[in-house]
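Lab notebook, bench 4. Still working through the backlog of constructs that have no structural model yet. Next entry is a single chain of 313 residues. Request: give me the structure tokens for it.
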Amino acid sequence: MRPWPFDTPYPALAGWLTTDITMSAGQPLILADFDTLKAHPLLSTAVSKLRWGHNHLATLEVSVTEAFAGPEYNARLRADRDTESGDHIFKIASVPDLTDFTDDIVNEVFDVAGNYRAALDKMAWKLVLSANGGVAPDPRGVKFPICDYPQQWIDAGRARNQFDPAHCGFIEEFQPYHGVNELADSWHGTYIHPLTMLQSLTNEAKHQDDWPVILPGANTGIGRNALPVDFDEYLAMAVEFLPQPLGGIGQPMEEGNEVIRLRLYPGADENIEDAGRLTPVIAFAEGRRIIDTLQRIERYVHFVLSEFARQFP
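Model written out:
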């Protein structure tokens, strides 16, 4: 018998996320680097906000990754042998209490999204000043309009009419009512335009109640209790650990939910209490993963600034 060459409690990855992501082919978003954009006289303050949001999101992503690297914030799995198939069915036995952690995440999300929104509004302010001799006709009405319907754009005259016509036309091209607009994009859940999502996040800080949602996440770590003592025996059975979707993708993580089915070694116990761990994913409503969604919003805001620098050098 050969002992295991390493001592970790959940050494075998049995599967990984098969996501519900939708991808749209189209023109890639060509992004100028921050330093180049910051040199543009009408974009410097906008880029500062975008860069701040970018750095804050990178820190948030690291924090989430590190938090879920250990077992404390992972769901515990149990496994029971199915008499018909002979496979073990892995189900969620307990869900970690993430209340304090997710409260912090919510505040971080609002901060990141607020900086992306501010980047667009800072750009709008500079454009209005450039069109009106350095003085905004209606300072309180200055903003980057975000409109889901053409009528909303028409109704946004207070902001719209302060722009130079060429700049106004430019901003109109990026309105959510144009949809994907032949741009490469990807999203979770039903389609929502990146700017619509941004507006939702920056408007709902006082009444957010449908997120965060805790979803089954990136992979399942199979515990030593579900694996043979002999490492060679494990290697022989590992070929059965074929890539397969995890159950419950896009649905809230709840006790009793089936996660995955695996054929374990012949001597495995019928019922295994601590059979593995499942990494959670923190998401918005409809399974929109928070980090992915914020990165998508950031790319779009970055694209707006990059396109402006290209069209109005």
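Notes after review: The chain has a mean pLDDT of 87. The chain has one domain: 12-311. Flag for follow-up if needed.
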